[in-house]
Automatic annotation (TrEMBL):
UniProt entry keywords in alphabetical sequence: Monooxygenase, Oxidoreductase
Annotated source species: Streptomyces omiyaensis
Domain of life: Bacteria
Claim: Membrane is one of the keywords in the record: no
Coiled-coil residue spans: none
Example GO molecular function: oxidoreductase activity
Name of the molecule in the record: LLM class flavin-dependent oxidoreductase
Domain Luciferase-like: 1-297
């Protein structure tokens, strides 16, 4: 399994001090967090893509390229690349370039985002979101697998004898995760192509996550890519830890209560009961995360959201120390126990290259 962190890059006031970091401070903090992730032995750092306040990561490839130059092992990913409002030609070229710069340590998660107004900003209609996701990815996939593409669709101008450059490193396109919280159409899309499905279940109860992943696994097998258990699954999660669970709850409560994404709603206790959010001791985080296998089966990637809601950088780096030193080593060992033979490992450039072939478009 791969373990890592993802960020949404929000610029949020610290409710305990009232201070809001500058955009510059937040961007630099995200870089520091990525470097810390490699230092403590995590596998993946993923950044979101947003084009509106209070978020800053509008250019994931710029940030990830900079991080690539300062790391050696960390897999660099996105926690959403907006397949609906980005031109698929630009996605193909930008991420192939990043793949070369990072010596293959790149994959990406495609999604539709969580901000409705972004559609008209980029000349699209939110009511066509699913159709945009389908058409744009079909084109992106062809551009990474065919040297010369002739194409005509609904949402962009036709292409004639077009070659995207640079070509994917070693002829192996970056691995694609299709990210969704609630849309079965996206689970179907991932299954149709035999790609990964990432269910960012941070706001949803286990039953919903179970249904979405089961649908993906069933359709993965239906489309001839292997057994349901061969499907490649990733999950999101949120944690906040201290040695004593009472201290964790006390410290995190003001951040939870005022967070722009879930503050002023359900209580912290209700939210932790109904979603994967875990606020407590490292052992509680271990036990809760291991329980995800009961929900979705053996899976390949677990990402945690840790740097949100106004938490200061110092606190986030402390959280990463706990995650890397006390939590992930246990998770690696325990998830490996009883893992059936034949369950695929997490995808990486080297393993995809070793297959010796590029899946058909």
């Amino acid at each position: 399994m791969q373990f890592g962190i993802f960020t949404v890059g929000d610029v949020t006031p610290d409710p305990t001090t009232g201070r809001t970091p500058t955009e510059h401070e937040r961007i630099k903090a995200m870089v520091a967090i990525a470097l810390k992730a490699e230092e403590v032995g995590l596998d993946v750092f993923a950044t979101g893509e947003h084009h509106n306040p209070p978020f800053v990561p509008s250019s994931p490839t710029t940030m990830l390229g900079y991080i690539a130059a300062r790391t050696e092992k960390l897999i660099l990913s996105t926690s959403t690349t907006l397949i609906t409002t980005n031109d698929p030609v630009k996605i193909a070229e930008d991420y192939a370039m990043l793949q070369h710069l990072a010596d293959g340590r790149v994959d990406l998660m495609l999604g539709r985002g969580n901000t409705g107004p972004v559609y008209p900003w980029f000349g699209q209609d939110i009511r066509q979101g699913i159709d945009l996701a389908k058409e744009n990815y079909a084109l992106l996939r062809r551009m990474w697998r065919e040297d010369v593409v002739d194409w005509e669709g609904t949402f962009r101008t036709p292409l004639q004898a077009f070659t995207s450059t640079p070509r994917p490193l070693d002829g192996v396109p970056p691995f694609v995760w299709h990210g969704s919280i609630r849309s079965p159409e996206i689970a179907e899309q991932a299954a149709f192509y035999g790609d990964g499905f990432f269910h960012n279940n941070i706001f949803w109860p286990a039953d919903h996550t179970r249904r979405m992943v089961r649908l993906y696994r069933r359709r993965f097998a239906h489309h001839g890519h292997g057994r349901p258990e061969d499907a490649v699954v990733g999950l999101g999660g949120q944690v906040f830890m201290r040695k004593n669970s009472q201290d964790a709850v006390r410290e995190f409560r003001p951040y939870f209560d005022n967070a722009p994404v879930y503050g002023h709603g359900p209580s912290l206790e209700d939210f932790t009961e109904q979603t994967p959010l875990t606020v407590g001791s490292p052992q509680q985080v271990i036990e809760r995360t291991l329980s995800f296998r009961e929900t979705v089966g053996d899976y390949q990637r677990q990402l945690f959201l840790m740097d949100h809601a106004g938490l200061p950088l110092k606190t986030v780096l402390e959280q990463l120390d706990i995650l890397g030193e006390e939590v992930v080593p246990v998770l690696r060992r325990e998830f490996a126990k009883g893992r059936p033979a034949g369950v695929p490992g997490a995808p990486a450039h080297a393993s995809l290259r070793a297959l010796g072939e590029v899946p058909a478009a």
